[in-house]
Amino acid sequence: MGIYIYRVTFLLTFICISGLAIRRSAHVKSVDDFSVASRSLSGRGVSWIIIGTLVGGVSTIGTVQMAYTHGISAGIFTFGSSLSCFLLGCFFARPLREEKVITVSEYLGRYFGQRFRYYCSTVNSAGMFIHVMAQFLAAIAILQSIFHCNDGLSVLLTMTLIGIFVITGGVTGAGLIGKMKFFMLYFIMFISAATALYKTGGMETIIAMLPRELDMLGFTRYGKSAAIVDLVSMLIGVLSTQIYLQAIFSAKDVREARNGAFLSATLIPPIGLLGIIIGLYLRGQYPELPVSPAQALPFYLEQTFPPALAAFFSAGILLTVLGTGAGLTLGVTTNIYNDFLSGKKILRRLTVPPITVVRLSTLVVLAVAALLVFSGLDSAILRWSYMSMGMRGCAVFAGLFILVFFKQLASSRLVLLLLYLLPITYILINVR
C-alpha cells in the first residue's frame, strides 16, 4: 500500500507541473518570446531562469553526498554558484544586456568575426549537449528506482517531460520551472534539515556524532587545491553557459538583469547549507550507509517521511534534474536556431512559422540525446560531462573576459588565434 501511495503521489505531482508548463505555451507566439521572452523579464524572472538551471542534482543530491563523504567542503558548488552569479551581476550583465543579442556567440561574433561565432557556438552547444545527456542519466536512475521500468520507457519519459518544459514555454517556461523548483526545493531541504536537527537535538549533537578521525569540518579531506580548482571551474562554467547568459539577455533592462543575477546569488547558498546539515546527520547516524552515498538524499527521504510526503519530495528532486536538463536543452536549441538557421534561404522558403522550426529543433536535440543515452554510452557520457564545462569555458569565457575587461585586444589576430586554439588544446589534453 505504501509504495502504491508513493507512486500515485509522484505521478500526480508531475501531472500538475506539466499542466502548468503547457498552459504557459499560450504566451509564446514568436521566436523572440521563445528565446528571450521579448526582453520583458523582471529581476525575479531572470533569477528563476538562472536558479531553474543552475540549481540541479549537484546542488541537492550531490551536496548531501559530498557532505556525507567530505563534510562542509560540500558547500563548494553552491558557494561557487552564488559567487558566479554575483560576478555576473557586477561585471558582465551590463555589457551583455546592452548589446541586445540572443546568444553569447552572437555577442562574441560582433567583435571576433562571424567565423568565430559559428566556431564558438558549435563548441558551446556540444558542451551543453553532453550535460543534457548527463541529466537524462540522472533522471532515468530516479525513475527506475521508483517505478522499476525498463530503459526504453525511462528514456521516453525523461524526453517527454523535458520536452514539455522546453517546447511549450521556451525561456518563460524555464523561468516557470525555476520558480516551482525554488519553492519546492526550499520546502524540501528546509523540512529535511529541520527534521534532522529536531531528531538529534541540534547542530552541536550532529557535530559530536561525526567521526573524529575525519576532518569533516575542514578542507583537509577534500583538499584545498582541489577546492580552489573546482571553485574556479564553477565560475568559468557559469559565465560561459548560454542559458545563464540568456537569462540576462531576456531582462527588461540592465538594472533588472543585474538584480536577477544578485537575487540568484542570494538565494542559492541556503540550499547548499541545508544539504550539508542532512549529509552530516546521515554521516553521524549511518557510518556505513546501506546504499551508495550518491543515493544518500533519496535514502533519507524514504527513511524519514511518510510515503505520500516522501513521494512529493522525490518528485521535487527529479524536477531539479529535469529543470537543469530543460534549461541546457533550451540553450542548445537557441544556439542552433539563432547562430545557424535564422535568416537562411531554406527557412524563408518554408511555409511553417519560425516558432515551429525552433520547437522542432528542440525535439531533434532531445531525440538525439535520447538515442545516444539509449545506445549504452553511460560511462562515456559521464566522463565527457566533466570535460564539457571546460569546453564551454575555453570557447566562451576567454573571449567574454577580453571584451569586458580588455576590449582593445579584440582586434588582435594573435588573440583571435589563441581563442581558436584554446578549446582544441583543452580537448586534446583531456582525451587520452
Quick structural gist:
This protein is mostly helical and 432 residues long.
Give a written overview of the molecule:
By secondary structure, the protein is an all-alpha fold. It has a single domain, classed as Sodium/glucose cotransporter (Up-down Bundle). Helices cover 80% and strands 0% of the residues. The chain has helices spanning 2-24, 31-36, 43-54, 58-70, 76-98, 104-112, 114-147, 151-200, 203-209, 224-238, 242-249, 254-267, 269-285, 296-304, 307-341, 345-349, 354-374, 378-405, 413-430. Helix 5 (76-98) runs antiparallel to helix 13 (269-285). The longest helix has 50 residues, at 151-200. The termini are far apart. The model has no long low-confidence stretch (mean pLDDT 89).
Essential attributes:
single chain; about 425 residues; 19 helices; mainly alpha; Sodium/glucose cotransporter
- Radius of gyration equals 21 Å
Total DSSP helices: 19
Kindly state the percentage of residues in helix: over 70%
Major sheet characteristics: none
Report the structural category: mainly alpha
Shape: globular
The CATH superfamily name is Sodium/glucose cotransporter
Helix-strand pattern: HHHHHHHHHHHHHHHHHHH
Count of all domains: 1
CATH architecture: Up-down Bundle
In total, the number of strands is 0
* CATH topology category name: Sodium/glucose cotransporter
